[in-house]
Amino acid sequence: MTEVYASLPVTMKYYGNDTRRLADFSFNFQLIPVNKNTTAANLSHLVSTYLSALPEGRWPNWVLGNHDNSRIATRVGEELVDAFNMLSLLLGGTPVTYYGEELGMHDVFISFEESQDPKGISHGPKHYLQFSRDFERTPMQWNNETHAGFTSAARPWLRVADDYATNNVEEQRSNANSHLNVYKRLVQLREEQAIMYGDRCFLFDDNKDVFAFARIKKGSPAYVVIINFGSNSTVVNLIEAEGCDGIFGFPTDGIIDVNSVHTLLLRGSKSGTKGKVPLNDVFLGPKEAIVVKFVPVFQIGRASCRERV
Predict the structure, then answer these.
(1) Lowest mean pLDDT among 30-39, 140-149, 230-239, 268-277
(2) Which of 16, 100, 224, 253 is deepest in the core (most CB within 10 A)?
(3) In this structure, is the dihedral angle defined by the CA atoms of residues 67, 69, 70 and 71, taken in order, positive or negative?
(4) Interatomic CA distance for residues 270 and 276, integer angstroms
């Protein structure tokens, strides 16, 4: 792995070429700019720009945050944490998870007097907020004990978040409907044939609210990730979805395998329960995200979805 803050064309040079291979991959920072104003169309552009620039046959990766940038939960809001973990873990390639993203950890305000980052300190108390990276570097929240179980020292390098007593590994591990358990299920899905070896296909390319992609492989169950970035509820008709050049079709029904923790799955006749869902009538509330398992209907003699990407 290599890390470089540069333009996309320069970043891609770190893969090397056919005669001189360099890194297996260089960190993909295309998703670092996402924030609470990011739309599905914005995200589609960021993802497609990266994949189009990727040298043929080279391995992609997805970075949501790191020690130099505000945490994903702070940038996009806690309700979209699961959605972005779905992206990172299921798009294909290597997901690069910054510690705490699996919990939805957020930035923590650190006063100038508490600061440790030389970059922030060097700009003085009037300007350190613009440059300090301490806010995204606070200790991992393991449990509800002193200092979130991070250390037995009198005090940690940086103080822990105020919500550590309820937002920690131990608490989320025991809660079936938690960011951590959503993350763990997404990791399990990476062992599915369609996720490991399947093609990638995007749907609703120009929709400003709905971002969706499918992972499919003949002979195996397929998966579609659907995210509603909008502030209003929406109904998605996958059967009539545009995209994938008609390479495959959706069946009548699918099974909801994973849902973001704030997703309300009981919609009366609209979506059923956490189980079977009619694929012509998938209901999603604001900022909700789901992963649906389905059996694709393949069209004979069509190109693979990978050629669509």
Answers:
(1) 268-277
(2) 224
(3) negative
(4) 11
Sign of CA pseudo-dihedral 38, 41, 43, 46: negative
Please report which confidence band the pLDDT of residue 305 belongs to, taking 50, 70 and 90 as the band edges: low
Whole-number average pLDDT of the chain: 91
pLDDT category of residue 301 using cuts at 50, 70 and 90:
low
DSSP for 33-73, written as a single string: T--TT--HHHHHHHHHHHHHHSPTTPPPEEE---TTS--HH
Inter-residue contact 88 to 182 (CB < 8 Å): no
Q: What amino acid occupies position 255?
A: I
Pinpoint the alpha helices (H) of 110-223: 118-121, 124-131, 169-173, 179-189, 193-197
CA atoms within 13 A of residue 144's CA, in its CB half-sphere: 8
Rounded Cα–Cα distance for residues 159 and 175 (Å) = 25
Closest of 210, 205, 247, 257 to residue 229, by C-alpha:
210
User: CB count, 10 Å around CB of 176?
Assistant: 9
Q: DSSP alpha helices (H): ranges in 109-254?
A: 118-121, 124-131, 169-173, 179-189, 193-197
